[in-house]
Design brief:
Blueprint (H helix, E strand, L loop, with lengths): L3 E5 L11 H9 L2 E4 L2 H10 L6 E3 L5 H13 L4 E4 L11 H11 L2 E5 L4 H9 L6 E6 L7 H11 L5 E6 L4 H12 L3 E6 L7 E6 H10 L6 E5 L4 H13 L3 H9 L5 H12 L3 H9 L1
Helix pairs in contact: 3-4, 7-8, 10-11, 11-12
């Protein structure tokens, strides 16, 4: 009988956030796959866990996934942990999960800490709808990919969550401001730790602050999305650059009857249907 893969969330700063279920699982599995065994040995030693450990990280994620699947096919249970937080979120664990699914290996997730959700709940920004971007592509290594993601975020109406390393924070803030313009955001660092910091600010204020203050620690940026009213206003502005006759033609060319086309034109331009009718008469 094949073994299972257990995705075990570990603390992002405060060791007291370790769950009882994760502790028992890490003690009972046959093998622990860790993103960095040097970091994880400290965690395991703190909780007196002596399970055998092996590395699983960005640079061996494909070959090592096959090795781990082989172990599970032999009947061994494997736990996957990342340096901090929930495996497979902005993490090479997503590859192992996908490979396990393809091989018919049962995967189960033990919920626990996740920096993105912790930051979102602390941000003071809307939480009902949000999107998670993880780390932006490198500004030097993949500028094209980075710009494409930033362009996609320009009209994003959901709250945006981005991870950033301290030595890249200033460049990230500059790029976000350049693409998104002024936005509210909360800058979160040292989450769950003694000196946890949540800084409600704006992109321009944050750029100014970090000109004089050295970024320290890992950051989570929670950024407000573009408001629906702002999107509607931008669309109306685009429609107003088109004549009402061309606007009508746009809809009529799609097979829409004239009455319905007038109704849509009026809605697009934020005016009454009678205004459209009178303009067409002129």
């Amino acid at each position: 009988m094949a073994g299972k893969l257990f995705l075990c969330a570990t603390p992002i700063g405060n060791l007291e956030d370790m769950t009882f279920r994760v502790l028992e699982t890490l003690k009972s599995v046959d093998l622990i796959a860790a993103e960095d065994t040097r970091n994880s040995i400290k965690l395991l030693s703190h909780f007196d866990i002596h399970t055998e450990m092996t590395s699983y990280h960005e640079y061996n994620k494909y070959d090592k996934a096959q090795f781990l699947i082989g172990k599970m096919q032999e009947g061994l249970n494997v736990a996957l942990i990342t340096d901090a937080g929930t495996p497979a979120i902005s993490d090479p664990g997503e590859v192992l999960v996908a490979e396990c699914r393809g091989a018919g290996i049962v995967v189960t997730s033990l919920p626990g800490p996740a920096a993105c959700i912790t930051a979102l709940t602390l941000s003071g920004l809307p939480t009902r709808r949000f999107c998670f971007e993880g780390f932006l592509p490198s500004a030097s290594g993949d500028k094209k990919g980075r710009n494409r993601i930033l362009e996609d975020l320009v009209d994003e109406s959901r709250t945006i969550i981005i991870y950033e390393a301290p030595h890249h924070l200033r460049a990230a803030l500059d790029d976000l401001y350049g693409f998104l313009g002024e936005r509210r955001l909360s800058i979160c660092r040292e989450l769950t730790k003694k000196f946890e910091e949540v800084r409600p600010t704006t992109l321009s204020e944050a750029i100014s602050f970090y000109k004089d203050n050295e970024p320290r620690g890992e950051y989570v940026l929670v950024i407000e999305g573009k408001s629906l009213s702002e999107q509607d206003e931008e669309k109306r502005h685009l429609w107003h650059e088109m004549s009402i006759e061309d606007h009508m033609k746009f809809y009529e060319d799609q097979g829409i009857d004239r009455k319905e086309a007038m109704k849509r034109v009026a809605k697009d331009r934020g005016v009454g249907k009678r205004d459209v009718y009178n303009a067409l008469l002129k």
